[in-house]
Amino acid sequence: MRFWAAVREALAGTHRDYTEGSISRAITLLAIPMVLEMVMESLFGVTDMFWVSHLGKDAVATVALTESMLTLVFVVAMGLSMATTAFVARRIGEKDPEGAAVAAVQAIAIGIVVSIVWGAVGAWFARDLLRLMGATPAIIQTGQRYTGVLLGGTVTILLLFLTNAVFRGAGDAAIAMRVLWLANLINIALDPCFIFGLGPFPKLGVAGAAVATTIGRGCGVLYQLTILFSGQGRVVIRLPQIRIHAEVMWRLLRVSFNGMFQFLLSMGSWVALVRMIALFGAAALAGYAIAIRLVIFVILPSWGMSNAAATLVGQNLGAGKPDRAEASVWRAGLYNMIFLGGVAVIFLIFAEPVIRLFTNDPAVLPIGVACLRIVSCGNVCYAYGMAMVQAFNGAGDTFTPMIINLFCYWLFQLPLAWTLSAHTRLTATGVFLAIPIAETGIAVVSILVFRRGRWKRVAI
């Protein structure tokens, strides 16, 4: 009964003080809506892939290549989001909601400026960017409008990430969850309409997926801004606060830069992996794209659990309770391990029927099955690695994960993937194998560094 009462409270939203009381209950109240939020975030990609997969492998390859290019947007979004969550959580822990609102305004301002620049470049040079990523002429012809629309609408991606980071840092995880519910419901409804031209909607093909997703995210952003200005959450933005605070913005950027570089290293390595796989043809690329979408679908909820740890770290450090912050991370890591371990068992056993939900292409199917099984073997290590990394970020120590990513991804994973794929008979399978091996290394190193405790003394 206690568990279901906690579930109801988590979904409805709560104004509990997370620096007091049971750690397990605090994790539950934060993690349930954060996990559902991350499920909804990953559902954008899964929904698009489901409908686009009916258009053929060139359309699927277009989505994979465009998503890889969007990593630069996600780098900025996640770097700023980590810093925003850390700042807001620390201010809430210090009982300074006005300071949290000031940090939120600075983060949103930075996001708007960056998205205008990147959106203009992406929309104008969509064709050239696809060619740079190794797309064939057929893929470019099929997907250039999809790429242009999705990259041109990056303002919706950045603001969706940043404003939800404000809600998470404040402990308003249920609000962030509802934002993604709204955005996804709209995307799910519009995707087939714009792709296939149902009813009064134009038939846009693969470009329709980008239109539907951008509209869905845009509606989510409008809902977020309504919450922030109406005073329904713990952080309230008032008109006099909408101005640049140079000192706060610089401190936020300083933490964000390390966070951005941290994700640039990790996501940039994923782009490099896609480029390697593209050398083995459209079938290999399509199989990888489908499998990785499914992996991300389960990994993002785990990031939700880890985000709960980040919020608890920030708020408890702000309240002067570093031991409680550390205990929260170990507990979140354990719960994460149980969840991802169960998912790994399911994917190892049922990989083929799961992949068949997306394709029956005889060239694509075995590649997707192999990728899903191989990558899932690292799930237990992903679980603890994510919890540790988010603990550093929640404390404002974005430098440590950046260094870990530099060594484990760029100096280990990429050379290993190239060696296994290009210099053995494994071909694309060699790239798949390098993923769980490198992620295991990240988990081990992160745990060792976390135990040293330097993150407890970071001031932001």
Topology:
Elements: H1 2-12, H2 23-52, H3 57-69, H4 71-93, H5 97-124, H6 126-132, H7 137-152, H8 154-170, H9 173-196, H10 206-230, H11 246-278, H12 282-318, H13 322-356, H14 365-376, H15 379-394, H16 399-422, H17 428-452
Rg computed from alpha carbons, rounded to a whole number of angstroms: 21 Å
Instruction: State the end-to-end CA separation.
Output: 40 Å
Beta-strand proportion: under 5%
What do the pLDDT scores average to? 87
Number of strands: 0
> How would you sum up the major sheet?
none
What does this protein look like?
This protein has 460 residues and is mainly α. Helices cover 82% and strands 0% of the residues. It has 17 helices and no strands. It has helices at residues 2-12, 23-52, 57-69, 71-93, 97-124, 126-132, 137-152, 154-170, 173-196, 206-230, 246-278, 282-318, 322-356, 365-376, 379-394, 399-422, 428-452. Helix 8 (154-170) runs parallel beside helix 10 (206-230) and helix 14 (365-376) runs parallel beside helix 17. The two termini are 40 Å apart.
Give me some keywords for this one.
single chain; 82% helix; 17 helices; mainly alpha; 460 residues
Question: Would you summarize the structure shown here?
Answer:
With 460 residues, the chain is mostly helical. The longest helix has 37 residues.
